[in-house]
Design a protein that fits this description.
The complex is a heterodimer.
Chain A: H1 15-23, H2 29-47, H3 50-66, H4 85-105, H5 113-117, H6 125-143, H7 147-158, H8 163-170, H9 174-192
Helix pairs in contact in A: 2-3, 2-4, 2-7, 3-4, 4-8, 6-9, 7-9, 8-9
Chain B: H1 3-28, H2 43-55, H3 63-86, H4 130-150, H5 155-166
Helix pairs in contact in B: 1-2
Classes of the chains: A mainly alpha, B mainly alpha.
Amino acid sequence: MKDAAPRIAHLDRDRPLVEAAIVDPARFDALYRRYLAPVYSYAYYELGDHHAAEDAAERTFLAALTHLGRFEERARPGDGEGASTFKVWLFRIARNVVANERRTNRRRPTTPLGAAALATDPLDVEQNVIRRDEAAAAWRSVGRLPDDRRRAVVLRFVDELSTAEIAGVLGRSEGAVRVLIHRALRAVAKDLAPNRPGRRP
Amino acid sequence: MTILGREAAEVDALVTDVYLESLLAGRSANAARPRSPREAVDAAVRIASARLSRDLPRFHPSFRFEERLAVRLAEVAAALRLPAAAGAEGVVLPLRRPGSEAFDALADPLADPAADEREPGLPRPLLIGGAMAASALSLAGAAWVAWRRIRTASPMARAVRAAHARRPA
């Protein structure tokens, strides 16, 4: 059950784009377009502020472009199809940038209700209110998690990274990541339980 | 926590992980419900997973920000391309001492106190080529000047030397 070290994906779906960007840095744009939203989302969940998330995303991509020559694809057989070590590397940079930002400004994730409302249907007012409340409650619950559990949950549910990829980003074993997420889900379930009756249609 | 308890938690976490894999794969494929071990997962964990899967949106920055950063990255990319193009015609090789291992610029020079006592393993320095030729020319030049001083070509000097030679001792 215990993993010795974090596994990093083998079949890198970004390999052609990375190789092209190493030869010609102008072609980094394709990688940037692919990963801007996930990196920005991660930063936004961590920092709770659009401007801070933009700053973090900018620094992440500038660092990635400047240091692309140092990137090494770690080949391992048996990793999932479509996995990307570049994605892991990029999110590691994002994690460091966000951690630095939080250290500097002592930010904590907040609960931007307006942002939570973005996910709802603008035409159904009643449903909107319910969904907005539920989204805000879920957001608050995730925001109350300890840092490592919150990061793992955001990477899993928002950015849809695999367990192996999250292990690579956080520098933990896959088993540790699985336990982190499981415990986070139990905590969220406990947190949301009183709100469930009467709120769900 | 006992070893058995820890193992049980890891098994629960593994089952949850398999469930999440199918849940998120189902979301990606617009499936109505996850395909696998739903029943094996704790109901509360299942509900929490569904809530987070549904209620945690992915955000996208503004279009203006995206394009501004794209321009900035293009500028940096152009700056990165210039030095590479300028140096493309030459290759920089590290300096190596013949017969010795590669020079390690990061190695601590004070790490081995006995290093100064050992033979360096290098051949003695040689004067080669132009330096030797220059030295030989210098010696030849000095000899020629001395010879010329002795053998002065003026008639007066020759007459003096001849008279001196004929003079009885």
